[in-house]
Design brief:
Order of helices and strands: HHH
Low-confidence stretches: none
Helix content: over 70%
Mean pLDDT: 85
Distance between the termini: 43 Å
Structural class: mainly alpha
Strand content: under 5%
Number of strands: 0
Length: about 70
């Protein structure tokens, strides 16, 4: 069980890395950030599973950082 959990965590880490790179290439970053914020709010209202909310929150924070540090287009 621990091995499966470790492998799942590693896969999620890899997915986050790939998506972070892809997010920097998206031209309409402000729109995506707005949608991530809305999705997070909706998930919280619907009492979605914590893991689902955490993934959306994590990407929202990555997206916000990308927008602030100038590495992404606004």
């Amino acid at each position: 069980m621990d091995e499966q959990l470790t492998e799942l965590q590693a896969e999620l880490h890899g997915l986050r890395l790939v998506l972070t790179i892809a997010l920097d290439l998206v031209p309409r970053q402000r729109e995506v950030l707005d949608r991530l914020r809305a999705a997070e709010g909706t998930l919280r209202q619907q009492n979605a599973l914590a893991g689902t909310i955490e993934v959306v929150r994590s990407y929202r924070e990555i997206w916000e950082q990308s927008s602030h540090d100038g590495s992404g287009q606004r």
